Amino acid sequence: MTADLSAQVTKIRYTDRPLPPYRFVPGQAPHPTRDPQGHSYNQRPERLVAFEDEDWCDCDEYLYGIDLFNHEYWWEAHEALEAVWVAAGRRTETGLFVQGLIQIAVAHLKWFQEFHDTAKRMALDGLGKIPRTNVIRLGIELATFRDDVEAYFAGKTATPVNICLCFP
Q1: What is the pLDDT of residues 99-158, one digit of tens each?
Q2: Main-chain phi, psi angles of 42, to 5 degrees
């Protein structure tokens, strides 16, 4: 495989939860939850009671999902954000937005695996759930985020997307 994870530079963290000991890439490491050698084996997934838009800056699982995304733990980000998606309600406006973030995380993983067509489709599906407005949603400046995702998957930038949260 010729692709490599981008060089680690100091990135902002939104939680103090430790990052897993490895990034899961299918075929390259033990499956995190199914393999006894996996970094999350026998750990129960986070269950959130509810998630509302105004809760985002106090929701540790959401913030951790963003940390994982930004540090290129895309499979793990997908798992963390899935708990938020379910708690928000899968078919609610917020739930669909979070599902879009999940799909963009998966798109990054597929891009890294050099499945570029699949990655582009996943990114496009994810962006379809991110409104085309210049507002801040769940701490994310949507216009900038959309531009960054589109540029990355068009091959205009080599650095994976980083989500910078805007706190109230």
Answers
A1: 999 999 999 999 999 999 999 999 999 999 999 999 999 999 999 999 999 999 999 999
A2: 65, 15
In a domain, 85, yes or no: yes
The encoded tokens of residue 82 equal: 């899935």
- Is 8 within the bounds of a domain? no
Q: What three-state secondary structure class fits 93? A: helix
CATH label of the domain that carries residue 135: 1.10.3450.10
- The radius of gyration computed from the CA coordinates of the chain, to the nearest angstrom, equals 15
Q: What are phi and psi of 119, to 5 degrees?
A: -60, -45
Residue 149 contacts residue 123 (beta carbons within 8 Å) = yes
Contact status, residue 82 vs residue 100, Cβ threshold 8 Å: no
Q: Are 111 and 96 in contact (CB under 8 A)?
A: no
Measured distance between the N- and C-terminal CA atoms of the chain, rounded to whole angstroms: 42
Which range marks the domain in which residue 91 is found? 53-153
| 19 assigned to some structural domain | no
Domain count, the chain: 1
For residue 11, being part of any structural domain is answered with no
pLDDT digits (tens, 9 = 90+) for 103-120: 999 999 999 999 999 999
pLDDT at 7 exceeding the cut of 60: no
> Please, which pLDDT band fits residue 9 given cuts at 50, 70 and 90?
low
Structure tokens given for 127: 């962006």
